[in-house]
């Protein structure tokens, strides 16, 4: 997994992950100024980052799918002249598209940035990318322990779940980029493991406090964690009420809620003072056609031919394999059709297993509820967004917080369809196919940029 992560880090050219330059600008600001940026109406980037953006031809390559990666050597040389390599050239106002995000990820990324403070901007960019690789390894390890918790007498499920998580192509891209999504995904998987632990083992005060700290930290990574924390804590509360009664459940909830509140409180106050919101600021958004109301949205988001095509594009292509600035995808489309068919079969199989109450069906039921709830939450966010800006905003990677639950749905869905004696073959096939898809994706990215 480490080798895979490093390959992804170096095969994707600098700043060719979606919005990577704005995330790096946030990291650079915190690394240089030691404070959280404040989002305003302007977009401000350091002189060094502006030069670097031109040196690696970010815009030319990102928005022209037939342009291969190359650099501008004349501008690259300017980066190393005394006047441009001066730390003063790294300063900016801090306001950019990412500046309204909570600082959880960026704080740790800025520490890595500082480790390479005297090195080139390219070195600092790749150093922060390597942090994402490390976070990806943490996610894979947690996925393994979730599998082990579900089937403690065997390592098979744990190993395959870890492989499916680490080798998922879009997760591999996110796990090799400067962005806050990777830490959000890790926090989600950690909370899922925590939930499994407290509902299967007699909970202790320490475990509950750890869960509260995890939830609070998740909320200062990205606002999407509102759903993740909400659904996980709600299910934990329901299970505790059923198992132990209202009194014990509410007492346990206090051990979670108090640390969660105090971890989140500083950002909540800061955000409210600066943005009038408890979840951060909203960057400048391109205004769509104001004549397009919500009726037009529902028609074109899912119900007509364009809507169905968009649904396929978001939840199949963008979830599995649509790279770079969303311009690098597999051809022919048959590859995505096969993937979509496998998704449908896995979901149907999981529902069949739940109805028949097959082995571990309760975990599959939870996974299904988690994924459906996540989808509903994202659509609610997009509807609110569309009502204000008249534009779509969903991307498939936004639901990578459901990666482990969805992998469980697919794994058990196929297991439930086939006789029990074929269980190991299902596991082998799932792991192998994910590795093959990852290798195909590396080949696709290489052909796009080189």
TrEMBL record:
Membrane-topology descriptor: Multi-pass membrane protein
Localisation: Cell membrane
Record keywords: Cell membrane, Glycosyltransferase, Membrane, Transferase, Transmembrane, Transmembrane helix
Pfam family, any one: DUF2142
Molecular-function GO term, any one: pentosyltransferase activity
Keyword Metal-binding: no
Record-linked PANTHER family: MANNOSYLTRANSFERASE YKCB-RELATED, MEMBRANE PROTEIN
Name of the molecule in the record: DUF2142 domain-containing protein
Taxonomic classification: Bacteria, Bacillati, Bacillota, Bacilli, Bacillales
């Amino acid at each position: 997994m480490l080798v895979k992560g490093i390959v992804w880090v170096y095969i994707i050219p600098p700043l060719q992950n979606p919005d990577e330059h704005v995330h790096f600008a946030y990291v650079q600001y915190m690394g240089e100024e030691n404070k959280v940026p404040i989002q305003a109406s302007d977009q401000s980037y350091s002189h060094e980052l502006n030069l670097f953006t031109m040196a690696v031809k970010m815009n030319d390559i990102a928005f022209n799918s037939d342009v291969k990666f190359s650099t501008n050597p004349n501008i690259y040389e300017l980066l190393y002249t005394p006047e441009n390599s001066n730390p003063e050239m790294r300063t900016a106002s801090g306001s950019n598209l990412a500046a309204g995000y909570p600082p959880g990820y960026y704080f740790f990324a800025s520490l890595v940035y500082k480790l390479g403070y005297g090195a080139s901007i390219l070195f600092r960019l790749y150093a922060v990318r390597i942090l994402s690789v490390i976070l990806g390894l943490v996610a894979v390890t947690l996925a393994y322990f979730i599998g082990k918790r579900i089937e403690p007498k065997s390592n098979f499920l744990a190993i395959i779940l870890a492989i499916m998580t680490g080798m998922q192509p879009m997760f591999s891209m996110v796990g090799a980029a400067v962005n806050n999504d990777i830490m959000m995904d890790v926090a989600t998987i950690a909370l899922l493991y925590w939930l499994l632990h407290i509902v299967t083992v007699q909970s202790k005060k320490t475990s509950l406090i750890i869960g509260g700290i995890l939830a609070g930290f998740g909320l200062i990574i990205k606002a999407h964690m509102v759903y993740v924390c909400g659904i996980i804590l709600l299910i934990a509360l329901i299970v505790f009420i059923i198992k132990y009664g209202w009194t014990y459940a509410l007492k346990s909830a206090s051990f979670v809620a108090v640390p969660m509140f105090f971890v989140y409180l500083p950002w909540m106050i800061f955000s409210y003072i600066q943005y009038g919101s408890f979840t951060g600021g909203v960057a400048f958004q391109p205004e769509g056609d104001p004549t397009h109301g919500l009726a037009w949205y529902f028609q074109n988001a899912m119900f007509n031919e364009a809507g169905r095509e968009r649904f396929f594009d978001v939840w199949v292509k963008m979830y599995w394999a649509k790279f770079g600035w969303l311009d690098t995808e597999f051809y022919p489309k048959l590859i995505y059709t096969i993937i979509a068919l496998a998704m449908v079969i896995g979901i149907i199989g999981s529902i069949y297993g739940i109805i028949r109450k097959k082995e571990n069906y309760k975990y599959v039921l939870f996974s299904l509820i988690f994924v459906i709830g996540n989808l509903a939450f994202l659509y609610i966010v997009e509807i609110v967004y569309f009502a204000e800006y008249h534009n779509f905003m969903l991307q498939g990677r936004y639901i990578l917080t459901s990666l482990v639950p969805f992998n469980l749905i697919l794994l058990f869905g196929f297991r439930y369809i086939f006789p029990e004696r074929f269980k190991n073959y299902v596991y082998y096939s799932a792991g192998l196919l994910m590795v093959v898809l990852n290798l195909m994706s590396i080949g696709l990215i290489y052909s796009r940029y080189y």
